[in-house]
């Protein structure tokens, strides 16, 4: 506009990245309302792009061993509660995003993908995977954890690609390069790779309920520790009244 009182998209892309602006535009609006382009949201989207890159780098460091070349979205060998939970959450996400995209509700679809990748995958499963990949966990569980890390991240990148095409392509190329299987023609780029579909066999309501209980327990303990200003490195005793769920 001649008044110069609008955001220049070229300047924003130079500062925050094209994916950040694209994701913000795609997810900020709601049907029937004007879009208020908040610079804080663009910065948050840039941080999300950085998060995707950091998650991918972490997973790549864990895929160096031959056992990591399993690419199935759901190897059930020695599957832990966390494995079953993240596979169920991922497949439920694919189901929801497909429904939202068909209804042209792109903003909510993008927000759900972001919540899953940053919240469920990065904040919870990746942290648990670090424990499951320790030598004491055993080779079988380590192999299964790597397969789940690879499968969920690779599928999530394909799911996010329409919203953030550049960072997802770059991350996907590095990730799939770890897979020793020969690529077919439609696997040369994430642009032409098949869009994810739901595997109903991996939807697990029980795992989601149990893990939600585990999340509540961990969050409650953390809140109490923060309230009493307990040093992060200090171990404290805790009594959990679990009743019938004691074994879990």
Could you give the topology of this structure?
Blueprint: H1 9-16, H2 18-28, H3 39-62, H4 81-102, H5 106-132, H6 139-160, H7 165-177, H8 205-227
Residue share in β-strands: under 5%
Distance between the termini: 61 Å
How is the main sheet built?
Answer: none
Subunit organisation of the chains: single chain
Helix content: 55-70%
Structural class: mainly alpha
**How many distinct helices?**
8
Shape descriptor reads globular
- Taken in chain order, the helices and strands follow as HHHHHHHH
Mean model confidence by pLDDT? 88
- Number of beta strands: 0
Structure description:
The protein is an all-alpha fold and 248 residues long. 60% of the residues lie in helices and 0% in strands. The protein contains eight helices and no strands. Helix 3 packs parallel to helix 7. The longest helix is centred in the middle third of the chain and has 27 residues. About 4% of the residues have low confidence.
Quick structural overview:
The protein is mainly alpha-helical.
Main features:
8 helices, mainly alpha, globular, 248 residues, 0% strand
